[in-house]
User: Fold these one by one.
Assistant:
Number 1:
Amino acid sequence: MSDEDYRLKRRQEWDEAGRRYDKLATGALADLSAQAAAKVLEIARLRDGETVLDVGTGPGSPALEAAPLVAPDGKVTGIDFAPSMIVAARKRAGELGIGNADFFEMEAERLDFQDNTFDCAISRYAYPHFTNARLALKETLRVLRRGGRLVAAMHGAAERNPYFGGPIAALTRYHDVPSPITERGPFAFSEAGSLEAAMKSAGFADVTIHVHNTTIVVDDFDQYWTAQKAGGAAIRRALEKVPQTRRPEAEVAALASMQQYVVGNRASFPAQIIVGAGWKH
C-alpha cells in the first residue's frame, strides 16, 4: 500500500471511528485518557499567554485540558485529519464553555501554519498513527518558536498495555498476512529508544523520555469492548482484517487475552504511558 493510499484509508477509518470515538475516549477509556493528558500537561508546564498546538487532537484532548492553563491570554489550537473528530472537539469545547480553543481539519505532515507560530506542541497517542510520523515531527518542530517544546504521549510496550495490546495481538494471529504489531499504528514508538531517536532525528534537542507505569479502571467492560469495536480504529481494523468465517473465533481469543484483568463486568488493567519531551533550539 502506498503512503497516499494508507493516508486515505486511515483518514476514512478514523473519520468513521470519530462518530463514536468521543464516547470511547471520554467514557470507557476515560481513566487512561485523563492520566495521559495529565502527564503531558505536567511535563509541558503551560503558562498563561502561551500559544499551544495539539497535534492529532481527536475529540479535543489534551487541548481542552490545556486551554484553562494558558487562559486568559493564551490560546490552544487542535488539529486532526478526521472531520468527525473536529466536530466532536468543537462540540465538547462548547459544552465546557471553553472559548480559547480552536479546532481545524489538517494533516500533521502538512501543517497550515507559518514557521515559529507556537510556544508549545502537545499530543496524546497521535504520532504513531500518522502516515509519516517522522515527517509530522519535523513539521511540529517547524511551527514551534525558538525555545518551544513538544510533549507527546505514546502507548508503551504492547505487553504492558493488555487492555489494547492483548486483543490486537490476538486478532493479528488470525490475519492471512500478519504484520508486526509495532508497524504503523498505536505501538509504532513503543520499542525502547524508538521515540527518542525519532524526535532527535526530527531536530528536537534535549530529548527526554518519561515512563509512567500505572493502572486503569474500566467500570463497564462490556461497554468498553463494544466501544472499541465501534470507535477504536486500531482494534476495529484488526478485527476486520480477520477472514469473516474466523471472526467469532478471533473475538473469543481477543476477549480471552484480557480475561485475567476482569472481575464480573469491571476491569483493572496495568498500563504504560511513555511521554517524549524535546525542545527547539
Number 2:
Amino acid sequence: MLAPVLGALDFLNPEKLIDSFGLLGILLVIFAESGLLVGFFLPGDSLLFTAGLLVSQDVLDVGLPVLLVGCFLAAVAGDQVGYVFGNRVGPALFRRPDSRIFKQRYVEQSHQFFERHGAKTIVLARFVPIVRTFAPILAGVGSMPYRTFVAFNVVGGLMWAVGVTTIGFLLGETIPSIDRYLLPAIGVIVILSVLPAVLEILRQRREAAGLPVEEPVAETPAS
C-alpha cells in the first residue's frame, strides 16, 4: 500500500530524478512546471539547485553552459505554452472542477497574486511554487499583450532558471564536500521557495477574517 506513495516521493526527489533521467529529465520537469497544469507539484527550485551542485561535483556529466541554456529555454518555452493554453481555454479554467490534484484555490490564489502585481507577476511568480505554473496561464486568460508577456517571461526565466542553477553550482565549487549536505541544502531551498506561498495564504486569511493587512502608505502630494 505504501509502494505507490514511496514511488511518488522518489520521483519528486531531485537527486533521484536526475540520476534516473539526466539532463532530459531536468528539462522536461522545468518545462512542465513552468506552464502545464499537471506540473504544479514538481520540484523546480530544488531540481535546478541540485543540478547545478551535481555539475560542480562532476556527478552530472553536462557542461554548465549547456545546463544553463537548456534550463533557460525549457523555462521560457513552458511559460509560452502556458500563455497559449490560457489564451485558448479562457474562462473555462475557472469552471474546472476540483479533483484529487487540481484545486480551484490554486487558480484563485494565482489570480489574486496577478491582480496585485500586474505584469511583473510573470517574473515574481517564478520564485513562488504553484503560482509559477498558473501565472502564464492566467496571463493568457487575461489577454496580456503578447510582447509584454514575452519580455517578462524571458527576464523571469533568466533570473530563475539560470540564477538558481548557478547558486547551486557556486556553492558546490566553494564548499568542500557539500554533496554530504545535499539533503539539508535541498530542504532549505524547498522552505525558501514555499515561504512566499505560505505568507500569501496567511495574508488572504487575514483579509478573510477582516483583520488589517499592512499596505504601503501613499504619500500626500505637496500642495
Number 3:
Amino acid sequence: MQLAAAQLGAHLGKGLRSLYTVHGDEPLLAQEAADAIRAAARAAGYTERSSHTVAGAHFDWSAVLAAGGSLSLFADRQIVEIRIPSGKPGKDGSVALQQIAESADGNDSTLTLVFLPRLDKMTKSGAWFAALEGHGVTIQVDPVERAALPQWIAQRLAQQGQRVKAGEEGQRTLQFFADRVEGNLLAAHQEIQKLALLHPPGELGWEQVEAAVNNVARYDVFKLSEAVLAGNAPRVARMLEGLQAEGEAEVLVHYTLAEDIRALKRVKDAMDAGRPLPMALRENRIWGPRERAFERVLPRLDARLLTRLLRAAHTVDGIVKGLKQPDWPASGWQSLQRLALMLCRACAVR
C-alpha cells in the first residue's frame, strides 16, 4: 500500500499496520513521518524499541530477524527499526526483508519500520521492495519543489497560528522566505519555529520576517538546470552565487549547463530532420520535469541560436580548465554566469 506523506496522519487515525517503509531524501519529512508512526505506536502500547543499521555487504541479518520474535518480560509490543542508508540490502537482505514483510501479516506484537533513501525505478521494482509494499505501507517523502515552497511555508506558519499579510505584500514575504531557505527544508522548519518564538500568533509583516530569517539556502547544481530552462534569471544568478560560496566544482556546473545545451541541440536537430517532438525527446532520454521544460522552450529556439550556445559552452569549458579566451571573463564563475544567463534569456517566456 502506497501513501503520500500528507495522507499519513489520516491513515494513522484509522489504526496501525505492522509494517511501514519510509523512503526518500528529504530528512525533515522522513523524520516527521517516522515520529508520527512512533507516536501512534506508543499510544497503542508499543513500549519497546530497537534499531538496526545495515552497513556493508556482510551485515548479519540474523539479529534483525530474531528481534521480530523476541520480547522482553516487561513489554508485549515493540517497534523494530531497520535503516538501510545505501538503499541496497544485498542478496541476504533481500531475502530477509521478504521474510520480515511476510511475517508482518497478522503480527500485532511487532511494528517494523524500514528507512530507505530515494530509490530509483529499478530498485522499487525489486522483489524485496514489492514485498514491503504488498504487506505493509510505503511512504515516499519527496523534496518540496521551489514553486511549492512559499505555500509550504504558509501552511507551516498556519500550524503555529501565524500568517503573512494578505495580498501582494504577503506573497512577496513568502517568496523572500523561500529564497532564503531554498534547498534546506530542515533549516526552513527551524526558521519557522524561530518566528513562533519571536512573535505571538497572528499576522507577520515583511520587516518581521526579513529581520528574523537567516540566509540558509543550499543549492543543488542539478536544480540549476530547472531554473535556467524556466528562464528565471534572478534565481539563476542567486543559485550560481550560492554554489560558488558552497565550494561547488566549476566543471560540474559547466557540465550541467553544457549538457542542457547539447540535449536541446540534439532534439532540435531531430525535429528539423522530421521527427515529432515527443519521439525526439524519447530518443534522447528526456523525461519528467525536464521533458516539460523542453516542450515549452524548443518551439522558440532555432538551430543557429543553439549552435552559438554550443560554441559558448565549448569556450567556457576551456576557461574553467584554466585557458584564457578573448572577449570572455578570465574568472570561471563569471564565465559560467554569462553562459547560464545566455541560455536563460533564450528560454525566457516572450
Number 4:
Amino acid sequence: MSTQQAEQRRGFFAALGAFFIWGLLPIYIHQLSPTPVLQIMAHRMIWACLFVFAYLAIKGDLGKVWAALADARARLRLTASALLITVNWFVYVWAVSSGHVVESSLGYFINPLVSVLLGVFVLKETLNRMQWAAVALAALGVLWLTLQVGRLPWIAIALALTFGTYGLIRKQVAVDSVAGLGVETLLITPLMLAYLAWTLHAGSFSFGTLGLKVDVLLILGGAFTAIPLALFAYGVRSVPLSTIGILQYLGPTLQLLTGVFLFHEPFTETQLIGFGLIWAALVVYAGEGLWRGRRTRLNAALVESGVPVR
C-alpha cells in the first residue's frame, strides 16, 4: 500500500468515526435539558477549546496554532469556518432541544449533495449524468417537502449549507486538522466567555445549579465536540470531497432513527416520500461512485498485468 493510499485509508476511518459520533449527539443533547441552548453552545465551545489546547500542548504542537494565526490568508479562512461551525452548532442544538431531530437529520441527508455541488461550482469538479440525476432527485425531495408541509425546511437547509461550506473551507486551508480546530475555537471562545459572564451577572447561569450529571456532561461536551471535528477535519483533507459526501449518510441515519424510535417524533407519509426521494438520490450517487471506483481498480489491475485497456 502506497503512502497516499495509507493516508486516504486513515482519513476514511477518521471521517467515519466523526459521523458515527455526530449521529448519536441527539441523545447527548437531550440529557442537558433544561440548560438554555446558548449556554450549551457556550460550554461546547469553551470546553472544546480547552480540550484541543491541552492535546496540542501534550503533542508539542502549539506552534502550529500561532503559525496559522500569523498567516493572514489562513486566519481569514479559519475565521470564516469558525463562524460557520458556530452557526451550525447553534441551529442543531436548538433543533434537537426543540423536538426537531427528524428535520435536522434531513439537513445532513441533504449535506452530501451540497458538498457535491460545492465541489462542482467552487472546486470545478465534474459530474456525469447519473450524478446530476442524483442531485435532481434530492432537489425534488426538498421541493416536495416544502410544498406539502407548507414551508421551506429551513432547519435542514441551514444545517446543510453551513456544514457543507465549512467542509469546503477546511479542505482549502493548509493547516493541521487539530491546530485548525484550535484556531477556530480560540476565535469564538472569548465571545462565549463574555456571554456566560453576562448570564452569571443576570442570575441565569445554569452550571452548578442543575445537578452534577449535567455539569459533567457540559464539560464532556468539549470532548464530544473536539474529537469528531478533529476527525472530520483530518478526513476531509485526506480523501476526496465526494467520498466525504458518501460517508455522511451514517450520521443522519442514526439521527433519524433516534428521533423516530427514541424520541417518538412523528414521521408521516408525506415526509417518507420526501425523504425517499433524497434517499434514492443518495443510492444513485453512491452506487455510481462504487461502480466507477470498481472499474478504476479493475483497469489499474489490467494495466499492471500488461493487458490493454479500452
